[in-house]
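Progress narrative, work stream C.
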Amino acid sequence: MNTPDERRAPVAVSLTSAAEAANDHHHNHGGEGGPPRRSKVAATLAVLACAACCALPVLIGAGLLTGAGAALAEQTLLAVAGLLLAGAGGMWWLHRRKSARAAQPGVGTCGSSVCGCGGC
């Protein structure tokens, strides 16, 4: 029969491994292949800029914005949203590229072979 200490040990190990897995997920910025947090923030700001652009007719109807002001705001918001989306995509691509390069065995390490990095 198991003693109380033997029954508790597997539970403590599984809780520790679950906490480590949660910590690894937090540091991994979205998991395997997912976008990093900065990319998510940029995409969210782009969506907010699009939503603000869609709200312009309501602001004109309420008398808070003139037609000329709305035209200027529309062009500005569309440009900002486009730049933010391009930046978010670029950050995600760079993150995936770095992750893939780091996952390759032997990349960035100097072994017995000549790698041409000058530091071997």
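Work stream C, second folded protein:
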Amino acid sequence: MNTLGDRLRELRENIGLMQITVSKRIGISNKVLSNYENNISTPDLQTLILICNYYNISSDYLLGLDINDNFIMESKINDDEKKVLNYYNRLNEENKDASKGYMINLYREQQNTEANKKDTF
């Protein structure tokens, strides 16, 4: 059975980040995050909330209470997806927003193209 520490490590590694990066973004020390991932200590409620918000996950998932939680890590993202997430996480906020907008536009164009193909048949 996966522990809270196992889940934390998996979340971090699946998006290609180092402990130091995640700890800075959450606002805790690298040593504290290491202790969480190695099951030496557990986060307090406020830190748990920060972690859940950072990874955009539910506390139930992190605590192992909801094994059916619909979360991207459960789908075992492939290497290309990990690479994209890794580069995305290295962007500043402005470029992250721009890349999200670009992806949304690409998706809309794809939907329109698919709809047009259906109309021609």
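The first helix runs from residue 4 to 14. No further action is required on this item.
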